[in-house]
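seq:
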Amino acid sequence: MTAHSEVMTMKALRLDAVATSEATPVEIALASDSAMLEPALVALFSVWRNTSRAIILHFLGQGLSRAEQRRLETLCGHLGVLLRYHPLSPAAFRKAEQKDPDISLVTLARTLLPELVPGRVLYLDCDVLVLGDVAELFDTDLGHASIAAVRDLRVVELWRDTYHRSDKLRGHVAVMGDYPVTDYFNAGLLLMDCAAIRATPGLVEEMQDFETASRFPLLDQDHLNRLFRGHSRLLGADWNEIWGRSRHRRRVLREAHLGEGDSRAPRMLHYTGPHKPWKRLRLSTVTRGKLWAFLMYRRAVRDLRRSEQTWAAGSSARS
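struct:
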């Protein structure tokens, strides 16, 4: 069976399941401009391939052309994904300042979700590849928390190696205040209870205080950690793994005596850093043991494009 025929078979099975299932749909959110549209579509495709329930997609788009919007709409139509498109105006983040060229201001769009989604939503960065069923994640018991995320492995590593003596760690310690710095989370995956966030007086407004967020090195990631410290649920580390670092993740968490997900295979790969897998292959990707994750991403891109070509050919034949 070819890759695209396998996808078409999966699509038929998924749509049949959606038609007969009364389970609550999984609501996910992606935010992108034109530069990150295809990675966003790859992320969506990977969610769809691995999710057992119907999907509602909240897509926050900035500056997408009509052709790019049609590509998104067509993909959602073929996957049976209910699309809710939220256009972002050019002035949406006018009070924000981009300090790092590798951190787009579009990531600030996740702070808008409590005003756009009635209940729960799972936000994903665009540079991810989902390998597990996010329906399980979506149903996580949040307890008294209104947000859930995965510990930031880089911060845990700094803490393990230097305790509080590292200059790089001091900023994270300041963000977390009296709470453990090892509770600092990576905002590339966020499970939000938007109703609970709205019910907290002033919290939505604080989340969208982009002027304050711009004072932090990591923008709204630092800002959100400050706002939700002590009120977030930590998820298993396998749900947000830095690409190509499975063994490293297990070792760091074990040595830091933090064991969430330390023995499980990754259920989401996060392609952090400037050297993305849709760019040319670098020698460091091979020497650092990341080639398998690089090739996995390239296969996902190939499967997406082949499926789009198959659907386009089918549409042309019918017309």
